[in-house]
Amino acid sequence: MKTYAGIDLHSSNSFIGVINQNDEKLHSRRHYNNLKEILKVLRKYKKSLQGVVVESTYNWYWLVDGLMEQEYKVHLANPTAIQQYKGLKNRDDKYDAFWLAHLLRLGILPQGYIYPKSLRPVRDLFRRRTLFVKQRTAQTLSLQSMIARNRGIEHSASVIVHLDDESYEEMFDCPNLVSTALHQIGTIRFLEKQIKEIEAEVETVVELDNAYRGLLTIPGIGKILAMTIMLEVGDIRRFEKVGNYSSYCRCVKAQSTSNGKKKSNNNRKNGNRYLSWAYVEAANHNKRSCPLARKFIERKTAEKNYTVAIKALANKLSKASYFIMRDQTIYDPSLLFG
């Protein structure tokens, strides 16, 4: 008789539920997050087990990898796409585990992508680069603001980074302001060093795949952004349609409307925040080098505002990227802005 397992994964423990093809419960118990213990539970059902469902939480790597190494068929459940019965008054980990197994038995389980284990550490390292870039930007803006407040002078980010310590000592007459400026510029320089070291390390490990080289033909996307997109996307074929990809990149509006009226905001955080950042960065660079993109930004800004305009351009670039990666072609601005 066929069996199905669902695992509701938490930080320190997991609830395992196993059912058969008649939806009868065969195992129902909470276990510590110990791979040997979980494998021992599933071993008695291995021959009949049609699949093991693991909820896609922040800590799924160890469990999914361990199960796959033991040749279990693992399904990574997408929790944001799973519909629960709204009339439930009592719902717990036990219910969630059996619900995952039940959805697998019915063949209607919304599944997430299991990113290849070999590339996962490189992707996570590159994600730290993105974090450091954001922190560097925050420190730079803070220092710019302090200079403007106390001196009435506006310096660009490039000027701030290249000023030496003596320049900051001469800029302020208060020792506390000098100390603040030196600490901030020190942090900016440190982050810049970390960013460059990560880029150099990743470039020695991963090369831009042929399917992604076409991204370099898009004005505003250089090697670093192209590698970010490649490492985050994995296999572009997992996105059936271009709309699925742009939604995953958080480039579309998350809201529900009825009769022309806004009813609610959908889950804005559903998708990949790193790809969202990458395409906004690409849009900001693209508008500087592409006349058609500049005109698009100006028109959208007049209609709405600059933030909406940049996001709209990011959406266009994400859709262009999808076809470039899927069809292995090059960028054609006339198709994007025609």
From TrEMBL:
Domain Transposase IS116/IS110/IS902 C-terminal: 215-296
Listed GO MF terms: DNA binding; transposase activity
Lineage: superkingdom: Bacteria
Domain Transposase IS110-like N-terminal, chain residue ranges per copy: 5-146
Transmembrane segments: none
InterPro entries attached to this UniProt entry: Transp_IS110-like_N, Transpos_IS110, Transposase_20
GO BP annotation list: DNA transposition
Protein name: IS110 family transposase ISSto5
The organism of origin for this protein: Desulfosarcina ovata subsp. ovata
